[in-house]
């Protein structure tokens, strides 16, 4: 059986055409989602383990950057998105992948460069997906913000 070449898009393969331990770990982690579990209890256990993994992997500097710089900016990006009714307009338009220009048509009150920064920040924090450069896709989380029970809490940030 020929060796399978696996690359992570950043570090490539290990020079032998075989997946490295690192590549296997990354592939396993990227393959996990909410449907990977038999019940909600297992899913919650996995979330708890993932938080613990982040704590073990993060340097103090990573923690400070995430907490002090990333989280407040995420709250601001969510508030702006809600004020623009971005999630509602996108949901009404069908929740599909959209380019920046298509999203700009949904929320024309915002400058394109600012909208781009907000969308990229939401994607970096997994609120949206960015399957390719300048193309964005809602996640289950962003779609949930169209429901008052989930979307309303953003107004209290």
TrEMBL record:
Secretion signal, residue range per the UniProt entry: none
InterPro entries assigned to the protein according to its UniProt record, in alphabetical order: COMT_dimerisation, WH-like_DNA-bd_sf, WH_DNA-bd_sf
Domain O-methyltransferase dimerisation: 75-147
GO molecular function: protein dimerization activity
A Pfam family matched in the record: Dimerisation
Protein name, UniProt field: O-methyltransferase dimerisation domain-containing protein
Taxonomy of the source species: Eukaryota, Fungi, Dikarya, Ascomycota, Pezizomycotina
